[in-house]
Design a protein that fits this description.
CATH topology of the largest domain: Lipocalin
Number of strands: 12
Oligomer: single chain
Family: Belongs to the CpcT/CpeT biliprotein lyase family.
GO molecular function: lyase activity
Number of domains: 2
Distance between the termini: 96 Å
Helix content: 25-40%
Structural class: alpha+beta
Shape: globular
Strand order of the largest sheet: 1-2-3-4-5-6-7-9-10-12
InterPro entries: CpcT/CpeT, CpcT/CpeT_sf
Number of helices: 6
Radius of gyration: 26 Å
Protein name: Chromophore lyase CRL, chloroplastic
Mean pLDDT: 84
CATH superfamily of the largest domain: CpcT/CpeT domain
Order of helices and strands: HHEHEEEEHEEEEEEEHH
Keywords: Lyase
Largest sheet: 10 strands, antiparallel, barrel
Low-confidence stretches: 29-38, 248-267
Length: 267
Amino acid sequence: MGTGDAGSSDTNGWNRARGLVVKTLVLIGGAVLLKRLTKSTTRWDHARIVADALTGEKFSREQASRDPDNYFNLRMFTCPAAEMVDGSKVLYVEQAFWRTPQKPFRQRFYMVKPCSKDMKCDVELSSYAIRDAEEYKNFCDRSKDQRPLPEEVVEDVAEHLTTIYLKRCQRGKRCLYEGSTPPGGFPNSWNGASYCTSELAVVKKDELHTWDRGYDENGNQVWGVKSGPYEFRPAPASSSSDMFSPLNVTPLEFLEKRVEGSFALQD
């Protein structure tokens, strides 16, 4: 009897100890999870998320397939280029027709940083002209040792063009961040414009919607697509049918004529 009682006591003691260990691990795990869930996103976290979303090779192919009369199959390629002393990220971005990526029609530097604490936004996205755009053509396609150095990039940041003020999207909206230029936009003289406006939505971590338009002094739109923003997404898996898509066999000369007045040639 005594031996049996001792064995039973040992078993009960082990079960209690094991239960205590399990409860402790659950409590610790819950505390860690709660800390992660309640951890606030810092100002620089917002800037990093937007910069990461902008980065990469994206196309408007799906949108051009749905509405070829208003949208082109364009390629947007963005990659990190430098970092400023204050921590702002400098990205290089270029846009081209899908069929001719080696001939970009738009080249820019984007500067991404947090909004200042007194502003009602999370991220500032500013676009700048490039001092010698030819030198940066196909920057993102090159190996790093074939690109201008970061210190050269900083020196080649030229005229400020626009700034979009982004806010984190409200809960329930189908986007991560969205924003626009301030009322009145920024000066622009292309094709008779007096000013231009830009809108951007980071819909997913790898999907962007952009809408650039130019207006004359009377408020009439003189360039830019009118029916809605361009939708850029990563390229879908390639297939043999792509080779015979109407988007890819349309004569390039025809596309270049149609692009007149579109957002693509806003300079």
